[in-house]
Amino acid sequence: LTQERYPVQRLPFSTVAEEDLAAFERIIPGRVITDPEELEASNVDWLRTVRGCSKVLLRPRTTEEVSHILRYCHERNLAVNPQGGNTGMVGGSVPVFDEIILSTALMNQVISFHSVSGILVCQAGCILEELSQYVEERDFIMPLDLGAKGSCHIGGNVATNAGGLRFLRYGSLRGTVLGLEVVLADGSVLNCLTSLRKDNTGYDLKQLFIGSEGTLGVITAVSIFCPPKPRAVNVAFLGCPGFAEVLQTFSTCKGMLGEILSAFEFMDAECMQLVGHHLGLASPVQESPFYVLIETSGSRAGHDAEKLTSFLEQVLGSGLVTDGTLATDQRRIKMLWALRERITEALSRDGCVYKYDVSLPVERIYDLVSDLRARLGPQAKHVVGYGHLGDGNLHLNVTAEAFSASLLGALEPYVYEWTAGQRGSVSAEHGLGFKKRDVLGYSKPPAALQLMQQLKALLDPKGILNPYKTLPARA
Ligand code: FAD
Ligand code: MLT
Ligand code: ZN
After folding, report:
1. Pocket flag, ligand 2, residue 82 (CB < 6 Å)
2. Is pLDDT at 475 greater than 60 in this prediction?
3. What is the secondary structure of 400-427 as a DSSP string?
4. Cα–Cα 20 to 30 A to 412, which of 139, 142, 165, 231?
5. Does any ligand 1 atom lie closer than 6 A to the CB of residue 91?
6. CATH class belonging to 351-430
7. CATH class of segment(s) 2-106
8. What ipTM was reported for this prediction?
């Protein structure tokens, strides 16, 4: 399947032999998995669009074990695929051929948490939702949140530089990750696991690994800044008559709710139909062409409610919004968020999904969806737009009953050219992985690609870490 859709040649790495398994067994006794059934889930990605045929899954518990494994693989010229929660959207998390899968699943210990600074230090395999619970019990929150929280690992989040639902308020992991511990391709340990907010001593090496998708090193521990838990959280779910009104609602929202605004997400009517049809979720507001989810996070419930009420009066009164609902209790807040967070799941039940994740000037975001709808006509089952509007990040998804080369041909390179024409990014937050590595050039100049190749060669001269991923096949 993989080779049919993405022609690629296996590189001349060694093949795992009995003596290699014995060596791994000595490093991590009882945690070398070779049972094909147990390996199945790690060989296939979340979207079930790419499948590898790895014969071995390694489950280290410590940095030292990761270091021994990589030193061994480096010497033996064995390729390695680092894997976290395997929720990645671009096929980066599973092997392409028989790469060894190195899972962080058992590296799930919190190392320290400081209740004054809010700085959490933990192993890379901690599940995001578990970390959220851990810090929330201590009156803090994680600076990131995403629909995959129940499965994704913090190491995977850092490796993909995940954006998500709190980006608008707390910014990129490039700002909130304070330190990293990374094992390099040859097994050496780079300990940059500091917990300082400010540190201008030389180059900021951790930035190289944030968003490097497992191609430059294996992240083993993370130091991350957690903001205080907001005392008052409100969610408004609104229906808008058109995209121009969505944009004006966003401007009004920034003006009236500025300092308490923590999320501004949008979805179109087709998304609502899909979550209704496949997941049985009912719209809490009247049917509308667009829906907006606004979250506020502040320190005084009364103050926030007052602000939100006058904002709602304004947008309803001016016709920017035609219907809306407000939630202040946790259960209803969760219910409203589910409508937005579970679109991905609904889409995957709709058939074959073509996923695009682009950054565009916010005013142009929906033009791409409308253009494609007209371009594809009945070839597509659904063409939907949703995403992190507050960050200029559109998720454009197209579904069809089955994979079709002609539909793919109508989508690509059209979507990438359209995006490049706006000087947008062809991957806003999901990364490039295996599926998108050849489109990097639409968003970065040749000189940048060349420097990336040089960095890869410097850090991983044998190319054993996540081969066939992130960087284009041809230099
Ligand atoms: P994996 O999928 O296992 O791996 C992803 C990549 O990181 C791979 O290239 C892998 O090799 C590498 N990697 C993993 N762990 C390490 C490590 N310790 N060291 C080095 N490399 C490593 N993404 C967003 O940005 N925003 C969203 O809002 C968002 N929502 C999502 C919602 C759903 C329902 C799903 C299924 C996915 C969503 N994603 C989102 C995509 C995905 O969850 C994120 O990319 C996530 O950060 C991946 O984490 P993971 O642990 O599952 O990593
Ligand atoms: C989201 O924002 O829902 C995620 O990035 C996943 C997706 O794009 O479907
Ligand atoms: Zn997203």
Report:
1. no
2. no
3. ESS--HHHHHHHTTHHHHHHHHTT-BSB
4. 165
5. no
6. alpha beta
7. alpha beta
8. 0.99
